Amino acid sequence: MKDINIEDFRIKSQVNIKDLTTKYNLDADKKDIKGAMRDISKDLADIQNAMYAHGKYSVLFCIQGMDTAGKDSLIREVFKEFNVRGIVAHSFKKPTELELKHDYLWRHYIALPARGKFGIFNRTHYENVLVTRVHPKYLMYENMPGINSVEDIDEAFWERRFKEINNFEKHIADNGTIIFKFFLNLSKEEQKNRLLRRLDRPDKQWKFSADDLKERKLWDKYQSCYEEVLNQSSKPHAPWFNIPADDKPTARYLVAKILYDTLKTYKDIKEPELPAKEKANIGLYKQELENE
Question: Is the whole-model pTM more than 0.90?
Fold first, then answer.
């Protein structure tokens, strides 16, 4: 299998989304890719166990992509070896009445992982500069001061929102949250094929909605908004990674590899040692148990 340099996928400068690939060749067959995926997911689980015991860092795993990009199955495969006590997943849908009573970041802030845990945001706080930008009428539900109609939403509004999101991420990164943001970059042709497969399979039809076709018609607008997200908010402390998503096993392996290679650089993450007094008495503790 090809050696992966994770820096090839990091967004480090201004990009044109049309130049970002949706396909990647690992020079391996699907059986080998799945085998490598099993191995690296176990290695990630070992890191998670150490992080849980260490209790000083948390990980925020953010994943965004168009419908059918493979978000749910990727999360399942990357984290399948994790202990459930150390991971919490959130899928952010339409805001509830309570959530709309607060600022738009509130529901994301209260869902952040505690130290020692992994938090998964399946669709993320970036929906607030993606879906709402494609459908600005949704912002009317937020009932914000100074925004009385869609006409009040100007470029300054979006610039301020990006600044707020960047500040939010900088704050949590400074306080021990390791942030990963993955854009599952799917081609329009592959989305079409996946939607057709959903319609052809009775066990997958429940995933389909007529709204999927309405949103597909807005493909170019979404791509433009994603491009701005990548350009405005990929920072050293909270990088975006472009993940070619036309092949699901490849996308899953790339995400797992980026997670593993990055987390291995945190040399201070390790299980804490027993206090010296208790460590010195291990023999006595064992003897006491054996003599019961």
Answer: yes
